[in-house]
Amino acid sequence: MGLRRLSENMKKPELLAPAGDLKRCRTAIRYGADAVYIGGRSFSLRSRASNFTMDDIREACAFAREHGSVIHVTVNIIPHEEDFDGLREYLRDLQDAGVHAVIVASPAIMKLAREAAPKLEIHCSTQLSVTNADAARFFRDQLHADRVVLARECTMSDVRKITAVCEAQTEAFIHGGMCVNYSGRCTLSNRMTLRDANRGGCAQSCRWLYHLYEKDRELSDEDLLTIGSRDLMCAEWIWPLMEAGVSSFKIEGRMKTEYYVASIVSAYRHLIDEIYENRGPLSDERMAYHRRQIMFAENRQTCDGFYAGRADEKSLIFHMTSNADVNHDFLGTVRKYSREKGTALIETRNLFSLNETVQILSPYGIHEDFRITSIKDAEGGELDVSRRPMVTVEIPVPFEVHEEDILRRVRP
Length: 412
Ligand code: SF4
Known about the structure:
Layout: E1 14-18, H1 22-30, E2 35-39, H2 54-66, E3 70-75, H3 87-97, E4 101-104, H4 107-116, E5 121-124, H5 133-143, E6 147-149, H6 156-165, E7 169-176, H7 188-193, E8 213-214, E9 217-218, E10 231-233, H8 238-244, E11 248-251, H9 258-278, H10 284-294, E12 302-303, H11 320-323, E13 330-338, E14 343-348, E15 352-353, E16 357-362, E17 365-366, E18 370-371, E19 385-386, E20 392-396, E21 406-409
Bound molecules: iron/sulfur cluster.
């Protein structure tokens, strides 16, 4: 059987990125996100990652509009009676601010949003655990949902079936953190810390370090253990998800850094565009290139999640060292470029040295690697190593770069 191809008129899926504040929102859009999801200061999970005032939301919408992107806002708490105070006005304000969609986890909030702010699209949050076509159809037919965000626990076969029969658009996760418990149904944090995971307070108890005992015999005498999941990484699943007709590809991580947002959005932007232009899967060589770009981001160890049909012990992180296994490739941000001198002022983040091979990540593309031939501090003194974070140093760059471009280490 030959390879199946996308039909000529198939729409390119939306790349949907997370942002915890206005700066990261602009970064996501500059690096190619078609849509960005953010949280306001109320009615949203991940309340600690939600730094958007209503003014910020307005500004985000204006920036998105200028760049052909849109803003989704999470209104995804599991509301108790007292949580409805001010919600109607809040939904109206979001509509007036120019928000495209609200991501909602409660049928009551869906109904309210339809009445109070009918121009907002309603997206069923992944917290609703939609894993079958009937559930998707229910939210579409009874609650007029425009889109269903599929549960991370869906297999590829579930995704295909739901997308084929449901009139609502489907959205699927392609990258980022996974819950080891059923997403949206975990009370580990509630029990252990009295912080309600389903009202934005998850203390990430599954990622803490534990001693493992069988009765009074310690089984983990050498290493402390976590019970957390590996992160989802879907390079290999982009083509099948596209072929299934999924409308939106979602990256998780509103708590993540600006570097993470830039590198992960850029990596998936290029991968999706290339597959779409090719109208079919890429060669092994091109996939290896894209996987490498994705792994530049600060990932934990990664897995395929549930798409392959199971999430066995290989999808878990057991050891403490693995849980913090993030890289230090983010070296700094370009603050200014001088064409005359051929140098860039870099605001530093992580240590780098003379003769290291580095790279510039830019919304305009990824440039050739180059070697650092000089590092000067703010007083013009020559350095062998730039050690201090958040200071400005000057380095020669053999091509034009732009403010906010990112300097990163090249991995072997
Ligand atoms: S404790 Fe872990 S599994 Fe539970 S909600 Fe938090 S991140 Fe998810």
